[in-house]
Amino acid sequence: MSKQIEKIKELVAKREKARLGGGEAAIEKQHARGKYTARERIEMLVDKGSFEEYDMFKLHRCHNFGMEKKQFLGDGVVAGSATIDGRLVYLYAQDFTVNGGSLSETMSQKICKIMDMAMTMGAPVICMNDSGGARIQEGICALAGYGEIFERNILASGVIPQISGIFGPCAGGAVYSPALTDFILMMENTSYMFLTGPKVVKTVTGEDIDSEHLGGASVHATKSGVTHFTAKTEEDAMALIRKLLSYIPSNNTEEAPRVECTDPIDRKADLLNELLPDNPNMAYDMYKVINAITDNGEFFEVQANFAKNIIVGFARFNGQSVGIVANQPSCYAGVLDVNASRKGARFVRFCDAFNIPIVSLVDVPGFLPGTGQEYNAVILHGAQLLYAYGEATVPKITVTLRKSYGGSHIVMGCKQLRADLNFAWPTSEIAVMGASGAVAVLCAKEAKTKDDPKAFLAEKEDEYTEMFANPYQAAQYGYIDDVIEPRNTRFRICRGLAQLATKRQSLPAKKHGCMPM
């Protein structure tokens, strides 16, 4: 046998050993937990046969606490490039079978290399987290590794899409990398994220809580808003990531992929003409509007279980990817609050960073009142949504369906925040406040002088309603570009997007703005 053949056989053997990660016994334990291995996850996500692995033979350099005896090829992370639906992506998956997926200095170098390559090539980066945290035996070197990753997350923000999948534990400083990315997906019942674990919480605060209720998928999907998606199975998770990628571009210099549209742009949605209740205080479901106007009624929602009073997500109009922001009248009457403002602002900024037009569907009575909101800085968070809309330079189309009152009117993509096209249904009411509130302020003193104050106030409410419970006053000032028949909403949005395809708008020269936080 020639030396060359021997070397080739040695290479093949090393590759086989590297693919086993922490070994067959460790893989069996991973499967017993109901979880896939790092390589299995990658193969499940990407186009078949497209994965190119880098640094398969990398080893850690730590010799403290007996770590020299715990050497595994690849050192706990599988990293490389692949294609998803033919599009280039870079990705890495932490391997829990190797030292619990703990992060070492060399492991961070592998991750940073992938992120640098993604930035150079202008391709999305996908990270799959399943790690016990920093490798304690490496001390400051492991912490430095996290710092290097975080810096790359920051530099890549707004340049390439970053997607994090949490497939197991993600605790301590490790949570900051996913938090810096654009979208987070968590596995139900098998993943968790928190800065300090249940034991520390118990010691410091006396609170007795388990990992699931402290930082599980349900907590972050409904209470904190940290995660954007949850999945019951890893197969579902990979399908979600693939679908998300179909709506977004590879980088900030490209447009999102356009698909063939089989849904006529002039399709009339007759149900919209009769959707709104005659009583302006009655609720209706905004999802019915969205499904009636988008291509084939398809809508890919983001953060579906958090701040349900506002809806955000991706859809298509005539095959073009669009971000939708809509108030939900069937949840708290569609009122804006701290969480809804945060949710909306973050989504608007993502769309603006990656050239995705924004369609806003407005039915908002105002901001939620009360000490709970004021103490939690609803002023600042409401200003975040305002800032996001005002800063965005992508095409912006706003459709006011019913109520649009006070400050909430301004922050939901009004003409003064440089919205390009503002349409209104004939049922829309655009005013400082509702009729009863306005009359209570304007006519309270005069009412006291009348024989029948209630009848007087009712008459004034009717006058106010006649004056402001329609879009025509706003239209006469040019704040509304056109009043449209509800069933024609899809066509007007599709035609508006076509008109705005060549839009060019820039911001004043500056290092960056100081967004209210």
Overview of this structure, please?
With 517 residues, this protein is α/β, with parallel strands linked by helices. The chain has 20 helices and 17 strands. The chain has helices at residues 3-19, 24-32, 38-45, 105-121, 140-156, 176-180, 198-205, 211-215, 217-224, 234-247, 286-293, 338-353, 371-375, 378-391, 406-411, 435-442, 444-448, 453-468, 472-476, 489-499, and strands at 52-54, 77-84, 87-94, 125-129, 162-166, 169-171, 183-187, 192-194, 229-231, 300-302, 310-317, 320-327, 358-364, 396-405, 421-424, 429-431, 482-483. The strands form three sheets. Strands 10, 11, 12, 13, 14, 15, 16 and 17 form an eight-stranded mixed sheet that branches. A seven-stranded mixed sheet has the order 1-2-3-4-5-7-9, with helices on both faces. The mean pLDDT is 92.
Secondary-structure map with pairings?
Layout (H helix, E strand, L loop, with lengths): L2 H17 L4 H9 L5 H8 L6 E3 L22 E8 L2 E8 L10 H17 L3 E5 L10 H17 L5 E5 L2 E3 L4 H5 L2 E5 L4 E3 L3 H8 L5 H5 L1 H8 L4 E3 L2 H14 L38 H8 L6 E3 L7 E8 L2 E8 L10 H16 L4 E7 L6 H5 L2 H14 L4 E10 H6 L9 E4 L4 E3 L3 H8 L1 H5 L4 H16 L3 H5 L5 E2 L5 H11 L18
Parallel strand pairs: 3-4, 4-5, 5-7, 6-8, 7-9, 12-13, 13-14, 14-15, 14-16, 15-17
Antiparallel strand pairs: 1-2, 2-3, 10-11, 11-12
Helix pairs in contact: 4-5, 12-14, 16-18
Number of helices: 20
Count of strand segments: 17
Q: Calculate the terminal CA-CA distance, rounded to whole Å.
A: 68 Å
For the largest beta-sheet, the strand count, sense and barrel status come to: 8 strands, mixed
User: Could you tell me the radius of gyration in angstroms?
Assistant: 27 Å
Strand content: 15-25%
Query: Based on helices, strands and strand pairing, what is the structural class?
Result: alpha/beta
Mean pLDDT: 92
Extract low-pLDDT stretches.
none
Helix content: 25-40%
Categorize the overall geometry: elongated
